[in-house]
Amino acid sequence: MRYSYTQLLSVCLLLLVSFTLPQPWNRLSSLGYLLMALVMIRGLGNPTGSLQFGTVPRRLFKGLGVAAIGVGVLWYLTPLDLRSTGIPVIALWALFSGWSAIRLIRSLAQERRVSDAVLQGALAGYLMLGLASGLLCCALETIDPNSFSNVSLMAKDLGQSSPVWGLNFVRLNYFAFVSLTTMGYGDVTPQTPQAQMVSVAIATAGTFYVAAVMGVLISRLTVQESQQP
Q1: Res. 75 pLDDT band, cuts 50 70 90
Q2: Domain range for residue 107?
Q3: How far is 182 from 202, CA to CA, in rounded Å?
Q4: pLDDT at 46 over 80
Q5: What is the DSSP letter of 87?
Q6: What number of other Cβ atoms are within 10 A of residue 184's Cβ?
């Protein structure tokens, strides 16, 4: 699993970097999400060592990941005026990212020592949650425009017949991380009940993840100190 931690962290960091690229290069973030999902399926869907999730849950997890990638590709390729394509993206990616976070926490809990790889895995999980939350917000904005204030996904050269992959995801990913960390700057705010509930879910997930991972790391550090001569 330790190699998977590094892979997931690298993909998440590359995806964040892609948001900083000028147009149209920042549209590579669309491919970054799919690559992140592939790494999640490969790493978290094939646990090694003492960590075993069972054959059926492992297959269900992989199937959910493949389905999430499939609806993501469909969503990216469809024009903006076909708004309903974002609905399965929200449903499947919410389940997939949440299940991935749980499996990652369980994987970290099996580690005997707090090593560099374990810290990378903990950070990768947090970034993964933020990026997945940003994707959910973007899908919601395509389904119901103006769900968030001060957000413009449309580039100047795009129209309603343009595919989703050309949208600018930066602003809503920024909002997702602000919500995940419960900072709440207020420059971007949810305007509809659906967007508000998504924001609540993101903030709750971020708080739970930090609490769970901190508990795991502290317990491992305590064991390490007790075993030292």
Answers
A1: very high
A2: 2-227
A3: 9
A4: no
A5: H
A6: 11
Q: Distance between terminal CA atoms of the chain?
A: 29
How confident is residue 155, by pLDDT bands cut at 50, 70 and 90?
Answer: low
CATH number of the domain residue 131 falls in: 1.10.287.70
| Mean per-residue pLDDT over the chain, rounded | 88
Q: Count how many residues are written for the chain.
A: 229
Torsion of CA 131, 134, 139, 142, to 10 degrees: -140
Domains in the chain: how many in total? 1
Report how far apart, in Å, the C-alpha atoms of 48 and of each of 8, 10, 112, 217 are: 16, 20, 14, 20
Q: State CA 207 to chain mean position distance.
A: 15
DSSP string of 105-128, one letter each residue:
HHHHHT-SS--HHHHHHHHHHHHH
User: Per mean pLDDT, which of 48-52, 138-142, 161-165 is the most reliable?
Assistant: 138-142
